[in-house]
Design brief:
Elements lengths: L9 E8 L1 E7 L7 H10 L1 H4 L3 H8 L4 E8 H13 L3 E6 L2 E8 L4 E2 L5 H13 L4 E5 L1
Parallel strand pairs: 1-7
Antiparallel strand pairs: 1-5, 2-3, 2-4, 5-6
Length: 136
């Protein structure tokens, strides 16, 4: 089991990411002409392709996954889609992670196992190790 040397001077860097997955939900298995026009209006990747290619790209599953985006961008696109009458769903994928920095040695401790990393971070926070916020 991993443990940290409490005689060293530590700081925890906290990394926060604001991310989200955006999915367009069509009324039927394939997007309607109205939905395709809305996609062309809202999504740059659909703007310059012909309607038939846009329909093919959208597929026949009744939904179009736009992937993981920065949170503000996903929410902005969802609002834009909503204004033109297209349903969508945002799934937040934001997370917080910690990297212990040993100021005694000047080295970062990269812990590969997520459970060990979380356990060590909790122990350090409970022991009063200072936390510095960093954004990804």
């Amino acid at each position: 089991m991993l443990d940290w040397d409490r005689t060293h001077d530590w700081v925890l860097q906290r990394f926060s990411s604001d991310r989200a997955e955006l999915m367009v939900l069509f009324e039927a298995s394939q997007p309607s002409l109205r939905e395709l026009m809305a996609l062309r209006q809202c999504l740059p990747s659909f703007k310059d392709i012909p309607p038939a290619a846009a329909r093919a790209q959208a597929g026949s599953s009744g939904q179009l996954e736009l992937g993981e985006l920065p949170g503000p961008e996903a929410r902005r696109l969802q609002s834009k889609l909503q204004r033109v009458g297209v349903r969508s769903e945002v799934r937040v994928t934001s997370r917080v992670s910690y990297t212990p920095l040993d100021r005694t040695t000047g080295l970062a401790w990269l812990i590969e196992d997520e459970a060990d990393a979380a356990r060590i971070a909790v122990q350090m926070i409970q022991a009063g190790v200072p936390v510095e916020d960093t954004t990804e």
